[in-house]
Amino acid sequence: MSASWAQLARVQRRTGFGTTGAAVDAAMAAGPDAYIAGLFATERPADPGVTATPMPTFTPIPPVGKTASKADRAARNQQVGAQLQTLTDWWVRRMAAVTEPFEEKLTFCWHNHFATAATKVREASWLAAQNSTLRTLGRGDFRALALAMLTDAAMLRWLDGEQNTAAAPNENLSREFMELFALGHGDGYTETDVREGARALTGWVIKADGGTALVPKRHDNRSKSFLGVTGDLDQTGYCDAVLARSASAGFLATRWWGQLGSDTAPSSSLVARLATAYGANRSISALLRALVSAPEFTAAQGSSVVNPVEWLIGAVRALKVPTSSDAQVKRLVTVLRALGQVPFYPPNVSGWPAGQAWLSTAAADVRMQTAAALATGGDVSPVADAAPAQRLDAAAHLLGIASWSDRSAAVLKASGSDPHKLIVVGLNTPEYLTN
Q1: What is the tens place of the pLDDT at every residue in 270-317?
Q2: CA–CA distance from 128 to each of 110, 121, 140, 168, 342 (Å)?
Q3: What are phi and psi of 417, to 5 degrees?
Q4: Burial readout 269-282 (b: 16 or more C-beta within 10 A, e: otherwise)
Q5: Which residues pair with 230 in a beta bridge?
Q6: What does the alpha-carbon distance between residue 295 and residue 363 come to, in Å, rounded to a whole number?
Q7: Residue 173 to residues 127, 156, 231, Cα–Cα distance (Å)
Q8: At 223, is the secondary structure helix, strand, or coil?
Q9: Contact of 346 with 117, CB cutoff 8 Å
Q10: Could you give the residue ranges of the DSSP H alpha helices within 187-267?
Q11: Do residues 358 and 118 make contact, with C-beta atoms less than 8 angstroms apart?
């Protein structure tokens, strides 16, 4: 395949969940520039996969009283768990079903950025609402998204924001928002800034319907001095003071390079260019378009280890593995659990690890077993229908791989011309496990 084909395949793999040779061929026919422009178009055609997988709605489960029996508490926990399972199953199915996966990949990356876990939140409707917010605002002005997260029910529960009152400020949300969401640890803010920021964020509560509201008597309306800004700051003043820091744009550029560009840190010049694209409008789309169009993005081929969600959903999509039944989707979630990355369950507020952490021996065993099941249950006809001598190339094309290395080709040839074996091995080659 040509260099431009390989470059476009990388764009598709990094902005989606794997790809196929057919998808790359179609994008090449439209033109790489036109394809990338389409990713960031304001008006996008309706996606039939989205239409076919509407987000479920959840009826709130009333809390049990202090005098509830052990059986009643167990029954409620079972209901909560069932709703959370339904939510996770839905998102896995949606990722597999969409025609153009960029929006779901972007939402998943924001989920990793604003990492919020069901282990503590325990409310499917709140997590679903946060997911919708990430999807709706994730391409636009980062300020709007950041403000929404500061008063989001799931985030308030996750970082104890609902316990943050004038009488007893809780610093968790103030600290983590600066350190992990918007500035980075090295920006020079102080413990005093953390405390003053917490005061600005006081007073927010979660209502019974999952909405949030500011309760004036719980809010500290005295003057604060935060990051050089003084006044009766609330969540808006707090957010604006954080985002006004010069380091914020570079922090976001660096975080997104890690999510989409490479496991290797970006150069200072690349960060500066991405921050310039982000600009005064704080445009996430402009930043990401500059990122995937940068020569450093092309040069970083093979430097990103695919995470379990990328690997599994990419294989499901390429092989057209059915996901119509609940049992089929639950099996996929079981695989993700074994690999250590289940949507709505990041391990902590920092999100999931990246890079070599996903390449353990235990994970390799799970991937091999899973690849065998996917090849059996999926469509390998593009490889099976090829002449035996062409099956290595057919397998590469099916999986969106420009070419095999000599080492991978030797291992694949040792598997013979069996289409299923070729796919199983192909899904576990360095060319598929990194991009």
Answers
A1: 999 999 999 999 999 999 999 999 999 999 999 999 999 999 999 999
A2: 14, 11, 20, 30, 15
A3: -100, 15
A4: ebbebbbebbeeeb
A5: 225
A6: 32
A7: 17, 8, 20
A8: coil
A9: yes
A10: 191-200, 235-243, 247-256
A11: no
Which residues have a Cβ under 8 Å from the Cβ of 371 and sit 6 or more positions away? 315, 423, 424, 427, 428
**Quick one: how many helices (H) and strands (E) in the chain?**
25, 4
Q: Which residue in the block uniquely carries the two structure tokens 């080492």? A: 407
Query: What is the per-residue pLDDT across 114-155, written as a single tens digit (0 to 9) for each?
Result: 999 999 999 999 999 999 999 999 999 999 999 999 999 999
Q: Which helix (H) or strand (E) holds 426?
A: helix 419-426
Question: What H or E segment, with its residue span, contains residue 61?
Answer: none
Report the alpha-carbon distance of residue 399 to residue 141 in Å, rounded. 34
Both structure tokens of 398: 């099916």
Helices 70-97 and 124-137: crossing angle, nearest 10°?
30
Say how many C-beta atoms besides its own lie within 10 A of residue 103's C-beta. 20
Residue 41 exposure: Cα atoms within 13 Å on the Cβ side? 12
3-state helix, strand, coil in the chain (%, to 5): 65, 5, 35
pLDDT tens, 166-197? Answer: 999 999 999 999 999 999 987 889 999 999 99
Instruction: Provide the whole-model pTM.
Output: 0.96
For the stretch 289-292, contacts whose Cβ atoms lie closer than 8 Å and that sit 24 or more positions apart, written own/partner, are 289/36, 289/39, 289/40, 291/253, 291/256, 291/257, 291/260, 291/261, 292/11, 292/14, 292/15, 292/36, 292/39, 292/260
Torsion sign (Cα): 265, 269, 275, 277: negative
Q: Residue 421, CB half-sphere, CA atoms under 13 Å: how many?
A: 10
β-strands 212-214, 204-206 pairing: antiparallel
Question: Tokens at residue 246, please?
Answer: 């010069």
Cα angle 262, 267, 11; round to 5:
35
Per-residue model confidence as pLDDT tens digits over 336-350: 999 999 999 999 999
Q: Distance (Å, rounded) from C-alpha 433 to C-alpha 435?
A: 7
Where exactly are the structural domains of the chain?
1-39, 247-299, 304-433
Q: Which residue is associated with the tokens 């089929």? A: 328
Which two structure tokens, joined as six digits, stand for 80? 């909560």
Asked if 159 and 173 touch (Cβ cutoff 8 Å), the reply is: yes
